[in-house]
Design a protein that fits this description.
Length: 293
């Protein structure tokens, strides 16, 4: 992921128990099952993002500086992963960049993105394409930059996280996982010859917003510009949801994005025996699209 002038000071040499806050968080992230995932607090220097029982990250008001204090016993791999895939996208959003909960893969002369909530299959799709000759750019934290009338999808850290059933089906048995993370049973895999990564920006051809998988058949439906704005907004990384100027500018940017790029809702049954057909369908659909609306 592009990291323009952002400084991170991971003070992991002095772990501490997370102190209580006198005020309530101004924003919350919860997992689909309701488990608390992140809490956002105001500080004199900016915002503190707390991952309960894992780490506290303080982000400066301008999104320029990030510092971290982990909880005793939490690994370096965990704090690094939280920074790269959760906190850095938030810091970039504070600096006015477009960052979304999505994966992206390279196809021919461009890229396609898969946008959706946790559990919708973003990483599985990225891994499926990457093991079939189409390098992945990012597993999550998709950064888009406008450039000459199109949008470039930027690469991020060359690793993927997969549930056990996905990596058993998709990855060769010889691929060793990266160090485990303290908060999830998902395994993390670094890119290599069998799991290929693209380390350069690619023009985004389209984005597919993933449905809930309850459909009996695969469907691809074009979204209207208004639906696309709502979809991008729903899946945005935003550090301060109470900053009206930031939110207004963000909506202006996603409105331009939505009027520039054709986007689609992709729904499909979550069965591995359908995966090859899904990849063929998406490839055929995406390669026939213009990059512009």
């Amino acid at each position: 992921m592009k990291r323009p002038d952002i400084v991170v000071k991971l003070t992991n040499d002095v772990p501490r128990v997370q102190p209580a806050f006198a005020t309530e968080p101004f924003h919350r992230w919860d997992l689909p099952d309701g488990t608390p995932w992140a809490r956002f607090y105001r500080t004199p220097a900016g915002c503190l993002v707390r991952f309960p029982d894992l780490a506290d990250f303080e982000v400066s008001a301008d999104g320029q500086d990030v510092s971290c204090v982990r909880v005793p016993g939490v690994s370096d791999a965990t704090t690094e992963h939280l920074y790269l895939h959760q906190v850095l996208p938030l810091a970039l959003s504070k600096r006015g960049q477009l960052v979304f909960h999505g994966s992206a893969v390279e196809i021919k002369d461009g890229a396609i993105a898969f946008i959706g909530e946790s559990g919708r299959g973003k990483s599985t799709l990225a891994a499926a394409f990457a093991t079939n000759g189409h390098r992945f750019l990012t597993d999550d934290g998709l950064v888009l930059e406008p450039a000459d009338g199109i949008y470039q999808a930027l690469p991020s850290h060359p690793s993927l996280r997969l549930w056990e059933d996905s990596h058993e089906k998709l990855l060769e048995s010889g691929i060793e996982p990266a160090p485990a993370l303290d908060y999830t049973s998902k395994a993390r895999f670094l890119a290599g010859t069998a799991l290929t990564h693209c380390d350069a920006p690619r023009p985004l051809r389209t984005a597919y917003f993933l449905g809930d998988g309850t459909t009996p058949e695969m469907t691809v439906r074009r979204l209207t510009a208004a639906e696309t704005v709502i979809a991008w907004a729903k899946h945005s990384f935003l550090l301060d949801v109470e900053d009206r100027a930031l939110i207004g500018a963000h909506f202006d940017r996603i409105a331009i994005l939505s009027n520039t790029l054709l986007c689609y809702e992709l729904n499909y049954p979550r069965r591995f025996d359908e995966l090859d057909r899904l990849l063929e369908t998406v490839m055929a659909h995406a390669t026939n699209l213009s990059v512009l609306r």
